[in-house]
């Protein structure tokens, strides 16, 4: 269709040109006819006038038989345009005098025929000459000769054609000027508005025609074009209303007003496309109400419908901005939660959702206790299409229903188990803080040349049900849920309390290093918490060392520098933990107000075979005048290499594993106290 498209402007111009030329030619032909008629009439009049002017002189010359005078008389006729010759004959038909002009150029036979056709009957004119000077009225009129004038009709035709030639070009110029003016006018006031209407029609969105009404042109508000535009807009508005009604009927559940399966599939397809582009996950929940058949059977379908409507409102309220709620039919609902991007978030959301669903509701004084089973599928792990995700969530829902009422399950069993463990761990962590289930273990930091105790690192442990839980099991959950911040405050407070105890009870001032997680470091209360806690327990700031990972420092370097400078200004030590495993820039590191670098255990484990990184860190620490701590020392070969490289401080299982407070005090604090007392006694 587009290949055969022809511009309306071009068609309009062609039509105007054709019409203008047709009428111009027609008018020109009429003009030619009038010119020819006028030329003939003018020639006839001129001929008579010419004969009248020379009749008397010619008569006198003939009467006097004066050839010279006769020749002179008719010679003047040749000066008149288009006269070829003149002849005077006597009464006996003998030629008396003849004069002629130069012979005309030979013309084509066609031109001669045209000339003969136009002026053939006027190519000559004659006048009879009579004797002059009658003596009385009784004298008889005497014929003495005849004057004949010959016209050059070809010259006359050529002159006429020359005149018509200029008229023809003038007519063409007027025609083309008129064409140009008309084309511009038509294009401006007709073609352009139609073109704008056409463009507006192309922009009409079939899904929302009422949002793309045609523009009304002011010059055409009161004419047929404006009427067509208004009528078309009325059709679009009416069509949009009808389409909205049909779409609602086709895509909405008539009972609850929620999206139905068709709209849900469309929404999932769009979400899949977006997630594929951004490489993100999203969650699909399949919800089936438990014991809904009992409601229908005992209270009737009318009450059952009311129940479903209230359940729909609860689901909408719970989901809010997290996604979309749809009803597949009966008591089955689906939630497309495109804002939930992980199994952990899905499990947390479902737990809260079930709590809201379990709230008793009243239906005409009948108390109903809703319950539901929920199946969870996750894109793309559990399916790449809408149908697959719904089917797998449905399968997971039946698995949850088999486990009892108000249960949920992931499509993959191992995911269900992991999520359940995580939720239990999160809940238990809250209880652990309240029930004081956390304890600190301490790992000593020693001078690796003399074995002297220089400090220790406080490491948190979770004592639950008579056993210790490794930090690797609960710290990731604590970081993910934000519980790490109050846990971190607890570690700082317990460390300050321990320092105070050692000073008061054993007269020992031993520094303690505490680890600060990324979320805790970024929290605005970190610096005030540390300062206030140290002040509350009346301990010197240099006895508390804050260990920060490289990743924490590099998340926001300006913020990190600001916080560390505040801590250093207050006197606290700053250590970079796990140094060498992150991506810190040396240019930034040079400006960080740190006091200690800790060589990560992964580099110490490779000693002495792979020593390049450890050597570099030691050299860097010396250049920056920082203390170097090697952590994770486990054998004598590692210790010997570190001693040879002048690394001063070490910690690891080769010296001691992390010890409970009492064991650490027995092994290090009390021994140091006894040694100090013995030294004083000797002195």
Structural account:
This protein has four domains: 7-170, no CATH class; 209-249; 252-425, Reverse transcriptase/Diguanylate cyclase domain (Alpha-Beta Plaits); 437-682, TIM Barrel (Alpha-Beta Barrel), CATH 3.20.20. It is 55% helix and 18% strand. It is built from 22 helices and 21 strands. The strands form four sheets. The protein has an eight-stranded mixed barrel with strand order 12-13-15-16-17-18-19-20, surrounded by four helices. α9 crosses α11 (413-435). It is elongated, with a radius of gyration of 58 Å.
Largest sheet: 8 strands, mixed, barrel
- How many discrete structural domains? 4
Q: What radius of gyration results from the CA coordinates?
A: 58 Å
Based on secondary structure, the structural category is alpha/beta
Under CATH, the homologous superfamily of the largest domain reads EAL domain
Shape: elongated
Low-confidence blocks of residues: none
How many strand segments? 21
Label this structure with key terms.
683 residues; 5-stranded mixed sheet; 22 helices; 4 domains; alpha/beta; 21 strands
């Amino acid at each position: 269709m587009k290949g055969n498209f022809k511009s309306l402007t071009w068609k309009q111009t062609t039509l105007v040109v054709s019409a203008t030329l047709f009428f111009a030619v027609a008018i020109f032909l009429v003009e030619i006819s009038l010119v020819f008629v006028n030329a003939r009439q003018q020639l006839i009049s001129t001929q008579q006038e010419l004969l009248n002017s020379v009749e008397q002189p010619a008569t006198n010359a003939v009467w006097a038989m004066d050839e010279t005078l006769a020749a002179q008389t008719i010679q003047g006729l040749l000066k008149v345009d288009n006269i070829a010759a003149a002849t005077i004959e006597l009464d006996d038909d003998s030629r008396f005098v003849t004069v002629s002009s130069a012979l005309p150029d030979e013309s084509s036979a066609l031109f001669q025929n045209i000339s003969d056709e136009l002026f053939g009957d006027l190519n000559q004119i004659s006048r009879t000459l009579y004797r002059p000077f009658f003596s009385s009225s009784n004298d008889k009129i005497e014929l003495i000769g005849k004057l004949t004038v010959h016209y050059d009709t070809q010259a006359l035709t050529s002159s006429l054609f020359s005149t018509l030639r200029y008229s023809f070009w003038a007519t063409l110029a007027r025609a083309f000027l008129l064409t140009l003016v008309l084309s511009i006018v038509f294009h401006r006031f007709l073609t352009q508005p139609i073109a704008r209407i056409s463009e507006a029609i192309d922009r009409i969105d079939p899904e929302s025609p009422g949002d793309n009404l045609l523009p009304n042109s002011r010059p055409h508000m009161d004419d047929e074009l404006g009427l067509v535009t208004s009528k078309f807009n009325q059709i679009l508005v009416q069509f949009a209303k009808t389409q909205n009604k049909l779409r609602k009927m086709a895509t909405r559940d008539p009972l609850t007003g929620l999206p139905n399966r068709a709209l849900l599939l469309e929404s999932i397809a769009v979400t899949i496309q977006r997630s594929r582009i951004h490489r993100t996950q999203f969650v699909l929940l399949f919800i089936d109400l438990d014991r809904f058949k009992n409601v229908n059977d005992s209270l009737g379908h009318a009450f059952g419908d009311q129940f479903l409507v209230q359940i729909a409102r609860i689901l909408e309220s719970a989901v809010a901005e997290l996604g979309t709620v749809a009803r597949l039919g009966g008591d089955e609902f689906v939630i497309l939660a495109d804002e939930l991007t992980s199994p952990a978030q899905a499990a947390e959301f479902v737990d809260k959702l079930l709590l809201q669903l379990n709230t008793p509701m009243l239906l005409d004084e009948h108390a109903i206790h809703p319950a539901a089973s929920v199946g969870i599928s996750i894109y793309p792990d559990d399916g790449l299409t809408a149908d697959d995700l719904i089917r797998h969530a449905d399968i997971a829902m039946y698995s949850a229903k088999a486990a009892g009422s108000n249960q949920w399950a992931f499509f993959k069993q191992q995911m269900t188990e992991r999520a359940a463990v995580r939720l239990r761990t999160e809940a238990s962590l809250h209880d652990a803080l309240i029930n004081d289930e956390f304890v600190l273990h301490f790992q000593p930091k020693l001078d690796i040349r003399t074995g002297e105790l220089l400090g220790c690192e406080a490491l948190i442990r979770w004592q639950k049900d008579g056993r210790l839980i490794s930090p690797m099991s609960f710290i990731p959950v604590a970081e993910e849920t934000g519980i790490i911040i109050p846990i971190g405050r607890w570690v700082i407070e317990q460390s300050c309390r321990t320092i105070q105890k050692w000073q008061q009870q054993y007269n020992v001032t031993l520094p303690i290093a505490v680890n600060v997680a990324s979320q805790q470091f970024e929290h605005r209360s970190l610096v005030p918490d540390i300062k206030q806690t140290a002040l509350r327990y009346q301990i010197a700031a240099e006895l508390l060392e804050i260990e920060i990972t490289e990743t924490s420092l590099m998340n926001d370097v300006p913020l990190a520098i600001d916080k560390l400078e505040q801590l250093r200004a207050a006197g606290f030590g700053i250590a970079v933990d796990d140094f060498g495993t992150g991506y810190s820039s040396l240019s930034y590191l040079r400006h960080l107000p740190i006091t200690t670098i800790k060589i990560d255990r992964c580099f110490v484990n490779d000693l002495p075979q792979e020593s390049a990184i450890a050597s570099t860190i030691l050299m860097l620490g010396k250049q920056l005048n920082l203390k170097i701590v090697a952590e994770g020392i486990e054998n004598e070969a590692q210790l010997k290499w570190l001693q040879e490289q002048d690394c001063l401080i070490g910690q690891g299982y080769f010296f001691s594993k992390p010890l409970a407070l009492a064991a650490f005090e027995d092994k290090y604090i009390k021994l140091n106290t006894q040694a100090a007392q013995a030294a004083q006694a000797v002195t």
